[in-house]
């Protein structure tokens, strides 16, 4: 979770989408060129076409994690598959590290996938006839690496995802969570720059899901990949994302940081998602602190401006005095009074009723 | 709101059916039987089709595209049609392969002759391949069984080979095995290739599907005539007929398996950077491994069934001996041979299934001995048994080395015992069996047969096409009508009616028995498992094996054929009933129990309706099985299409008749298949399955 801030503007994006459309159906291309960019899903449906992705444009920078959130049929998986070119976008422009994905030949595409991309699937998609180790070594062997080299690297990955001792198991002998660890290890085996995850934790039990999310955050902390993560779970999106794109009927309704999405939903649809989200889970102290009037008024407690309200609320409320807010270098940048915290914790709900 | 609507729909269908039956009966009684009445019989407009086929084939074989071929006998070039040259080279290639395996197993000189000459073999007495001692083959199969599965398979394989050896059937059995060992791998490769092609291109699939449908409903006999015409007579022709017959199920199962591979697995392969070949051979085929290996198993079964029927066109082996025994009514002998075939079928079946279940152990200990122990053991065994056989050569003075091979007339035989048994049964029950058979023939079969033959062609069309319309709408009516029209326009309409009568009779009884037994067994999981095992075992028997015991009981009559049909065709009906009933969700059982139903109510109101579409697919299989058996029944004398196909075999210009008759049988099967499948699909959709 690295907020890049001002750097984003300078660096060139790893993934860049410009008005990407994906329409399924026989005369999709004709319909699209006739529509002049204004695609109406219902109109297309009458003509026998299904709109998968409708005018998606965004940029994704190195080390950033974009979570695409939407309900089933919203086109989120289709968008992901357009960018990995598992399906070919009907129109638009997709660049990966500056090179045009849609004009790539088969060879270039295979090269790109062998070296730059990794993908994790909802149903794990492990090869049933191969062991854990062989599954993880598979992309390396496809690439043409020697067996000893592949196995050594695969063994590193087994250890990285915490499956040591189970490398000779078959997928059917593993639990769902363990299978997805294999999927994750396989997708990371070639050390890709871009990591696609298609609802990786949706098929798992809630407790396992939480554990896997923690594991995922740990991995990302170590590896710092550029990530496109698809989920239908808004809480998951809030937990993991640097930025969230909310999709509905193929359209990206809003693309912003978790805090901005919760605080200022762009559309009615987004607001419905956010209204039940506990604010303290997304908002950082920074967003509710007051400017300092007098440093002497502050009590002894100091909290970081980057911590979530939830994580410090209890200690803040147990203090009688004002709490000081500090930045990364320990400099005091603001103060926090109880009322603001209480308002975040309870306020909104009372207003609503 | 929905409930009354369904009720109404059901009623319209019932009324439609009723009207159909009434019209059918009216036509049945009103149309006068007369050769000139087209409502009674259609003129045989395509009776010339067989001649057309004959002419076409002889053009292909004798005149089409002559090329110059060097003939060493006259030391000059000679014109020869290209097709003939192609089939000739295929023939010799196949024959060579069969001979190599055959001589490895039982010895001979032909392989050596191929590489040298007859003169060389004559001049050098040592130039004779001795063949493997049966004791070695027996222990090697045991070893294979042990490696693939364990002690149980090892003992089964050991006992089976032992039986074959000591009953003196070693040589013919190994001849059959050599044919199967060539035909099965070739079928597998062709099947896999076409399955992959059909998966890759929808056009290919669209072309293959109707061909596969016809191929899988054509009776085995129909494959013999074309094989004979194109490839001559002998083991190679038998093997080629076998390959053509055994390939369609392999294509189908490969395609099925590949289609079942989850899209995400394919995507994961693509994202791992697979190119097309890598995707096919390292992702798709291994993932579809299970279905593909079921295909292998099917291929082996079909090969063995066909290897015996192929004896009609000169394939050596058990089938040939069995045919002789059946023709001379040596039931005891036939039974022994039948058991040999069944044993080979069962052993090959179990070995291939065990191979399917075997997961390769990539991470075994890596020292030389533990990796190669079975190879070392195999060489040891070969050495040991060769020495034993050599020493045995001194021991058995009268010329037969029992430790090397047991000749056919020196083995143990139980023939006399069986023959005595048959005699005893006939002596004791002759009158009751005969009375039963006569009663059945006179009071049941002949009236039904006459009723079928008395059907005016117009009435048949009305009945079949209306049923088609009721089940699947206009399209289905046209499809089944088309199948029927082909048969009606040949000169064998009456024969087809007889085939239809025997098949319907067999199917009705089989379905009743199968559904009853299946329903009873489905009530307990133990009984279900047992009955499925029984079905599995019976299904490995090649079809004509069933003819042996029925001849014992009823002699050469229609009763025999129909008994065999019923026994054989009951297997799928039972199996699908059990499977269908067992797959009704447990939650539904619980829901029913909580509504307070008793067992019978549950069966009638819940299980049966839910499982009925699946059961009907079983009935569909029953029809195909029954049809095949009726045709094979020609061996013990019938007067339907099968008998005419059999006649075509001994006719020089038989290919036209053989193929057209085969198509007639296939079209009967396909019409029934189409109706039942369409119905089951609609019903499943209705039930939301």
Polypeptide structure, described:
The complex is a heterodimer of chains A (353) and B (689). With 353 residues, chain A is of the alpha/beta class. Chain A has two domains: 7-116 and 192-277, P-loop containing nucleotide triphosphate hydrolases (Rossmann fold); 281-352, CBS domain Like (Alpha-Beta Complex), CATH 3.90.1280. Chain A is built from 14 helices and 13 strands. Chain A has helices spanning 7-10, 28-35, 41-46, 76-83, 106-115, 132-143, 147-160, 176-188, 206-223, 234-240, 258-263, 268-274, 309-317, 338-352; strands spanning 15-24, 50-60, 65-69, 91-96, 99-100, 117-120, 194-198, 226-231, 243-248, 251-256, 298-304, 322-326, 332-336. Chain B has helices at residues 2-30, 49-62, 82-106, 110-115, 118-123, 134-148, 151-166, 170-200, 202-217, 221-231, 235-260, 263-271, 276-287, 289-309, 318-327, 331-357, 368-395, 415-453, 457-489, 493-521, 525-539, 547-554, 558-582, 586-594, 599-632, 641-649, 654-687, and strands at 66-71, 76-81. Chain B has a two-stranded antiparallel sheet with strand order 1-2. In chain B, a hairpin with a 4-residue loop joins strand 1 (66-71) and strand 2 (76-81). The radius of gyration of chain B is 28 Å and the shape is globular. The two termini of chain B are 22 Å apart. At the A-B interface, helix 5, strand 6, helix 6 and helix 8 of A face helix 12 and helix 13 of B.
